[in-house]
Amino acid sequence: ALQLTLAVIKPDAVAHPLILEALHQKILENKFIIVKSKEIVWQRQDSERFYAEHKGRFFYQRLVEFMSSGPMQAYILAREEAVSQWRMMMGPTKVFRARYVAPGTIRARFGLTDTRNTTHGSDSEDSARREIAFFFPEFSVAEWMERV
Ligand code: CMP
């Protein structure tokens, strides 16, 4: 079914113009429609709010700091099975695992560490709705779905 997902190119990837360009191309080549896109810079508190579920994990502090360390590019992407398709393209969270089990994926090719892993993607339709609202508060998923 047609779905929306929230995709984020994280600060490590946005920092390098070639990688940002490569990822943007990859999105288009894989039949996603870019519904909305914007550059965004998080304050520390945005980062803490978005990753509240990870509070207490050993990587929480470095994650929060990293995600508020520079500009990101956020996308609302539309496609058949957008959620799982984007996650498949990203590959596993952990970069070294990604390189081992899914060598062609985005994180395998461009990820630096388990934290600086290049991209984010919603893990379900429910998280997509929640995360789209977080990044694009003015956007209504329901209205968009009615129009297509
Ligand atoms: P993301 O898909 O944005 O969701 C949570 C993030 O936490 C994840 O990508 C990584 O950036 C980070 N993360 C998850 N697991 C680890 C880990 N084991 N070590 C360091 N960072 C992690």
Protein described:
The protein is α+β, with helices and mostly antiparallel strands and 148 residues long. It is built from nine helices and four strands. It has helices at residues 11-14, 17-29, 44-50, 60-67, 82-90, 95-101, 106-110, 125-135, 141-147, and strands spanning 2-9, 33-40, 72-80, 119-121. It has a four-stranded antiparallel sheet with strand order 2-3-1-4. The longest helix is centred in the first third of the chain and has 13 residues, at 17-29. The protein is globular, with a radius of gyration of 15 Å. The protein starts with a strand and ends with a helix. The mean pLDDT is 97.
State the distance separating the first and last CA atoms: 12 Å
Task: Briefly note the structural class of the backbone.
Answer: alpha+beta
Order of helices and strands: EHHEHHEHHHEHH
Strands ordered across the widest β-sheet:
2-3-1-4
Specify the oligomeric state.
single chain
Task: List segments where confidence is low: pLDDT < 50 over at least 5 consecutive residues.
Answer: none
Bound molecules: adenosine-3',5'-cyclic-monophosphate
Major sheet size, sense and barrel closure: 4 strands, antiparallel
Shape: globular
Name the helicity range: 40-55%
Overall average pLDDT = 97
Approximately what portion of the residues adopt beta-strand conformation? 15-25%
Please give the radius of gyration in angstroms.
15 Å
How many beta-strand elements?
Answer: 4
Number of helices: 9
List the defining traits of the structure above:
148 residues; alpha+beta; four-stranded antiparallel sheet; 9 helices; 4 strands; 48% helix; 19% strand; globular; binds adenosine-3',5'-cyclic-monophosphate
